[in-house]
Amino acid sequence: MTSLLDIQHLSISFGGVKAVQDVSFGIDKGHIHAVIGPNGAGKTTLLNLITGIYVPTQGEIWLDGEKVAGKAPEALALRGLSRTFQNLRVCMNMSAIENVMIGAHLQLDSGLFAGLIPSKEARTRDRKCRYEAAALMRLVGLESHIRCHASQMSYGALKRLEIARALAARPQVLLLDEPAAGLNRTETAEIDEVIRQVAELGVTIVLVEHNMKLVMNISDRVLVLDHGRKLAEGTAKEVQSNGEVICAYLGQQHEDDPTS
């Protein structure tokens, strides 16, 4: 087994509905692996299985050679899995940099006693965490927002803030659930650049996204789901020329999506 993240025969059902059916694929370290498909194809459900929100009915998930299927999300986060969600989960009553610092909470001493009576060591760690959070904000193109409150930021900037927060957990694998949803062309191009930069740092990316131009531009591999099943997998060029994929998804996407 050479893949950093290896999915084997993964399935889950909800009340008799087979949301994901016998899906298998592997992702190599440092690659950008996109998951596409029509609405209801099982893309977000697959991410929820990988990140421990759901427990599979059958199948295995291997992370860096260890079985992790069914482990709690916080345990998986400690093992190097981090994610963003379709809908913004930003703490709007906090500053931008504090939101990023939240992502590092698993690595900090957050006990009650430490919070009530912070030691010199704890204060040093806090300063280091703030410094690293600022560096992550620069990485995702938010240098001008380091001193901003989250409520002052645009929707597109908040999307990149969530990526910075996910990176603060120092993941091996970063799962992005529709990072370009609701963004205009300029903001989508900014997300494109951020994903490329993160992958260049050696972080493996799992990308669920409806914007086919973004997917095809940056992905090393593309997995296509349809009704919970694996329809196809390959390079962007291979998937784009697959007749079944065109009929099930890409043809409809090109007709309906003026940005594709």
Structure in words:
The structure is a single chain. This protein has 260 residues and is an alpha/beta fold. 39% of the residues lie in helices and 23% in strands. The chain contains ten helices and ten strands. It has helices at 43-50, 73-79, 96-102, 112-116, 120-139, 155-167, 185-200, 212-218, 236-240, 243-256, and strands spanning 5-14, 17-27, 32-36, 58-63, 66-67, 81-83, 173-177, 204-208, 221-226, 229-234. The strands form two sheets. Strands 6-7-8-3-9-10 form a six-stranded mixed β-sheet, sandwiched between helices. A four-stranded antiparallel β-sheet has the order 2-1-4-5, covered by helices on one side. Helix 7 links the parallel strand 7 and strand 8. Helix 6 (155-167) runs parallel beside helix 7. Mean pLDDT is 89; it is low at 254-260.
Spell out the key features of this protein.
single chain, 260 residues, alpha/beta, Rossmann fold, 2 domains, 4-stranded antiparallel β-sheet, 39% helix, globular, disordered C terminus
CATH architecture of the largest domain: 3-Layer(aba) Sandwich
Order of helices and strands: EEEHEEHEHHHHEHEHEEHH
Radius of gyration: 19 Å
Q: Supply the CATH superfamily name of the largest domain.
A: P-loop containing nucleotide triphosphate hydrolases
Distance linking N and C termini: 36 Å
CATH third-level topology of the largest domain: Rossmann fold
